[in-house]
Amino acid sequence: MITKCSHCSQYFYAQPEDVGKTITCRGCGKDVVVTRQPDFDNSIPPVTSGDGCMALFDFKFCKFVSPSLMRILYIIWFGVSLLGAIVGMIYLIKNAPSIMIPIVIMLTPIAWILNLIVVRTGFELAMAIFNMERLARQIEKNTRRY
Ligand SMILES: [Zn+2]
Question: What is the pTM of this model?
């Protein structure tokens, strides 16, 4: 959000949770209490991609797949990969030589967790990029008023 220095009247960015706290002005270096500026719209602009599922058919990638869709995809992947790990483990236990069974029991959960970490990292990266795009739009919207 944007706040204004009471000493030098300069506008600068502050975290919304800092309202009421004293921070150092980036313009004049004096201590200033963070206040909300009613003349600035501090709300984050709505996601233009609208319905998350429709963004999947946007092959130009000018719109973003919404975080809610990513959440659903992650839940689906979590379930599918868990089921796959269980089915795979049962199959290997039935078919592998008996000496291999303890290794199968040990390695299958590790493999599943490693896969989940990789997928999770990918999702978090995509979310971070999405949030950056949202923040960039918020800054653009606010700075346009100068
Ligand atoms: Zn100042």
Answer: 0.49
